[in-house]
Amino acid sequence: HTHVDYVFHPYILQSRRSFVLPVYIGPGLRMIQYRDGRETNYFAFGVRAVGGILFDFKSIPLDAFVEVAGVLEYRGHDGDHFGVAFNAGAGARYYF
User: Fold this and answer.
1) For the segment 37-75, what is each residue's pLDDT rounded down to a tens digit?
2) DSSP state of 17
């Protein structure tokens, strides 16, 4: 699974001296390879709609986030069709 998003920060939920807590939304792209351990093995490409909350520290180059995304994807197997998928994730980024 690989995805790329372009996000906007339209709302700030909290802004303190030590951190900022914005909401983000935006479009993206996803590529995934499905495997079920048998003969089913295929790629899917799709567009994402992502939304999340970012905890951005002001004094150190670190942030943490929680996000959810809906994906409309083209699945290239069994007659080639479209499908819907959902993602959720959490993570942290350190800026060099």
Assistant:
1) 776 778 889 999 999 999 999 999 999 999 999 999 998
2) S
| Contact indicator for 33, 74 with CB cutoff of 8 Å | no
Token output for 17:
């001296």
Identify the bridge partners of residue 73 per DSSP, sorted by sequence position. 46, 83
Answer yes or no: are the C-beta atoms of 50 and 26 closer than 8 Å: yes
Given a contact cutoff of 8 angstroms between Cβ atoms, the answer to whether 48 and 28 are in contact is yes
Task: Measure Cα distances from 3 to 27, 32, 52, 65 in Å.
Answer: 11, 8, 15, 16
3-state SS, residue 96 = coil
- Tell me if the pTM is above 0.90: no
Beta bridge pairs of residue 35 = 41
CA 55 to chain centre: 16
Question: Length of the chain, please?
Answer: 96
Residue 17 one-letter amino acid: R
Place of tokens 């993570």: 91
What residues have CB less than 8 Å from 37, skipping those under 6 apart?
none
